[in-house]
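Supplementary Text 2. Reproducibility record for the structural model of the 221-residue chain.

All settings were left at their defaults, and a single model was retained for analysis rather than an ensemble. We include the record here because the model underlies the residue-level annotations in Supplementary Table 4.
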Amino acid sequence: MDWLLSLALAVGGYAGIFLVSVIGNVIPFMPIPYLAVIFLYTAYIPDANPFLVGVVSGVGGGVGKLFVYLLSMSASKLLPPETLERLQAFRELMGKYGALAVFVFAATPSPDDVIIAILGIARYSITKFFIAVTLGKIVISVATAYFGKAMNFLVYQDPLIGTVATIVLLVIFTWVVLKIDWIAVLEVVNREGWRGLMRRARRGELELFVSRQASRREAQS
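Retained model, structure tokens:
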């Protein structure tokens, strides 16, 4: 992560944020912690505008994922005709929910490269894909940037307290996000819409959205 932060500061300003966000998303199936750079940038750079930082980062993330999508689309040329026919049916099936799935996965720390690769191979609409993935990346980047900015005043009031608070809150935030089963959330939204998701939350059905892997790990421990 140090080299990413150094790169962002060396390039400077929003251009540096854009560059590290592209790099953080362009290599498929290899997570690069570019969001940590966004967090630290807004936490330690007093003049940083968290909204603009988040938007620029989100656009950079969308551009990076576009390369992953185009790479997957190129791979579809190697597939046999019968497989392409099945993918055509899959593309039609995903026509209504593909963009929503991309948005949800992009707006969370979920493994979005999997669904991006599938949609690329299926030649899903590139316009819908780019809009959805960019909006999703903007959401998570803006949230991260504001989170970092909230720590800014602590850092300058007392650097030690600010640093400790930053680490603790980042760990808590990451734990909560990873605890959620985003696939289960997506399935409910597809079936019942966002209102249905909120109704389930109000009825206390939150356990349905807890990651099964996380639950298994806690049970084993």
